[in-house]
Design brief:
The complex is a heterodimer. Chain A is an alpha/beta fold. In chain A, 31% of the residues lie in helices and 17% in strands. Chain A has 14 helices and 18 strands. The chains are: A alpha/beta, B alpha/beta.
Chain lengths: 423, 165
């Protein structure tokens, strides 16, 4: 009997064939902590576990991204606790400004095909973009890994998504991720791994967008096969492959040729409609960033739509690159210059305004269109504020008009003859 | 007597404790337990008492991995959380912290907000003035962890993880 990618990776870790439903204890290759939860993880390791040293400093990575740079004295002191711990224990730490943990671990190839990567962040499913079993956990679970080297996992059933066709101009990986939420719901893959088939052609950045949002279906992991750009850039272990004999709990098929730009309405990630159904909704703030859509390609897609046109009167647009590397790419060509010429506000690479703590917190009744991954009530600020989720292209088109706008409609307006590619 | 707090489906961790009230963001002297449901259900934040029981719709605790969400409920000494299903990370976090969870599709349809209640965690019974309900047991490993008082104590006492031989 064949094995899914999740079964292959967990089976490799325990040295035997594993089946969905069984509990396994594994040594994760990487246990990542970020600034928001690491102070509490350190406290559990030291005070509850009584561990003077971590089990293996090489297994641990620390990233300061959630409030970067520090916004208050308390945050600054907490970040210094993390810095001191890293120095004392010999743990690799990525400083403020380096970028979002999930982007940095892929850029640095800390996360690689066939690995088990756990992190103190629910969007740790992102590592599935490079064919790793990536999963988010809370402080206590991560503290146990740091102290003992191990964690327990229930081997998940796998939901297979098969994509046919290609995105039309103006449609992107984000629309695919939102469409999965719309069809499968916010709990559609709870306790399961998602495996994405038919996307060997999809570049790494699009894979990261989709895998980051696997958790928005409730999934434990969202894993791409080790093919295409992943295989070109990373070493792939020979035991990791798509097994035609693998057993899937469910298969969901989607035709990309028919996919429209998607928008998630407040206040749920699966409250999704075609952009046409919400076009015209007034927006105060456009936020381009996050582990889901803060990469160079996302900034480029926005620049291609903006083309130097000014932001709509009264609208602000925040751009928070996912990492310093991605920002440097946007500086190397005219992407960043184009964005700035339109009047965007550039902030430090990191998580930015995504969870409402700094660099763009929303006030009462404000309406935000975000390229992020969550639109829960109050997530970005005041509980009366509203968050719509969409692709960078929809975000940029909206920034030009001040109302939610299909980027293809904007292009038609500018070039009545049509035919322009704004993907 | 303790009471029931009813919630709908897909209660996310941003509702349980908004990220702006994370311990990471709080000032000296502020306590995350005072911010449980601070915006989604301010009366809960004000008056929820030890032993009170949360009864909710499916997929309780979806969203962020923030353990301070269940931890805020633990520190309010919530007696149990009963829902048809729980989001994966919340389930792990709550069990790890020793919070009794019960998966029941029936209870949320039978009891109302504010109803007086007594929770018998050991025997998995929910007792209201009009009826006593037997709750479905948790999987063995989860029940073992809760009985130990959380995963840290479980691992320290047993020298191994649940499922480890």
């Amino acid at each position: 009997m064949g094995q899914t990618l999740a079964e292959q990776i967990l089976g490799q870790k325990v040295g035997r064939t594993v089946r969905p439903g069984e509990l396994v204890v594994v040594e994760p290759d990487v246990a990542m902590g970020h600034d928001s939860l690491s102070p509490s993880i350190i406290r559990i390791v030291q005070e509850q576990m009584g561990a003077a040293r971590v089990h293996d400093p090489a297994q641990i990575v620390l990233v300061l991204d959630h409030v970067a740079p520090a916004s208050t004295v308390g945050v600054a002191n907490n970040q210094n606790i993390v810095r001191r711990f890293a120095a004392e224990q010999g743990i690799r730490l990525f400083e403020v400004g380096r970028g979002i943990c999930h982007q940095v671990l892929v850029e640095e190839q800390v996360a690689r095909p066939g690995m088990v990567v756990v992190g103190s962040d629910s969007h740790s499913t992102s590592y599935g973009a490079v064919s790793a079993f990536g999963s988010g956990m809370g402080s206590t679970d991560i503290a146990l890994v740091w102290a003992t080297g191990k964690t327990w996992l229930r081997v998940p059933e796998t939901l297979r998504v098969i994509a046919h066709g290609r995105f039309r101009p103006g449609v992107t990986a984000k629309d695919f991720a939102l469409k999965l939420g719309r069809e499968l719901t916010i709990a559609g893959a709870t306790y399961m791994a998602v495996e994405y088939h038919g996307l060997a052609w999809l570049p790494l950045d699009g894979r990261q967008t989709i895998a980051s949002m696997a958790v928005e279906l409730g999934a434990k992991a969202g894993i791409f096969p080790p093919d295409g750009e992943t295989a070109a850039r990373f070493a792939v272990p020979d035991w990791l492959f798509v097994d035609p004999e693998a057993a899937y709990a469910r298969t969901f098929t989607i035709n990309l040729d028919e996919l429209e730009p998607q928008v998630a309405l407040p206040h749920a990630v699966d409250n999704v409609v075609d952009v046409s159904a919400v076009a015209g909704q007034k927006v105060d703030v456009v936020f381009l960033g996050t582990c889901t859509n803060g990469r160079y390609e996302d900034m480029r897609a926005a620049a291609d739509v903006l083309q130097g046109r000014p932001l709509a009167p009264g609208l602000r647009m925040l751009v928070t690159p996912a990492s310093r590397q991605e920002l440097q790419k946007a500086i190397a060509d005219d992407t960043l210059t184009t964005l700035l010429a339109s009047g965007v506000t550039l902030t430090t690479p990191g998580c930015g305004a995504c969870m409402g703590r700094h660099q763009g917190t929303l006030g009462a009744d404000e309406v935000c269109l975000s390229t992020g991954n969550r639109n829960f009530k109050g997530r970005m600020g005041d509980p009366t504020s509203q968050i719509y989720l969409a692709s960078p292209a929809v975000a940029a088109a909206t920034a030009v008009t001040g109302v939610i706008t299909d980027p293809r409609a904007l292009e038609k307006e500018k070039h009545p003859a049509g035919g322009s590619d704004c993907s | 007597m303790a009471r029931i707090w009813k919630f709908g489906t897909d209660v996310d961790t941003d509702q349980i404790v908004p990220g702006r009230y994370a311990p990471y963001m709080l000032k000296e002297g502020q306590d995350v337990k005072d911010y449980a449901f601070i915006e989604a259900r301010p009366d809960f934040a004000r008056v929820a008492q030890p032993g009170d029981v949360i009864v909710a719709g499916a997929n309780f605790g979806c969203g962020s991995s923030r353990e301070y969400a269940p931890d805020a409920l633990r520190r309010r000494q919530i007696g149990a959380i009963i829902a048809p299903s729980f989001a994966r990370i919340f389930f792990r976090n709550a069990i790890n912290l020793g919070i009794p969870l019960f998966e029941s599709t029936e209870i949320p349809e039978l009891v109302g907000d504010g109803e007086a209640v007594e929770m018998d965690v050991v025997n998995g019974r929910l007792i209201t003035p009009s009826a006593t309900y037997q709750l479905p047991p948790l999987p063995d490993f989860a029940a073992d962890v809760i009985r130990a008082g959380g995963i840290v104590r479980y691992v320290r006492e047993n020298g191994r993880f649940p499922g480890e031989l």
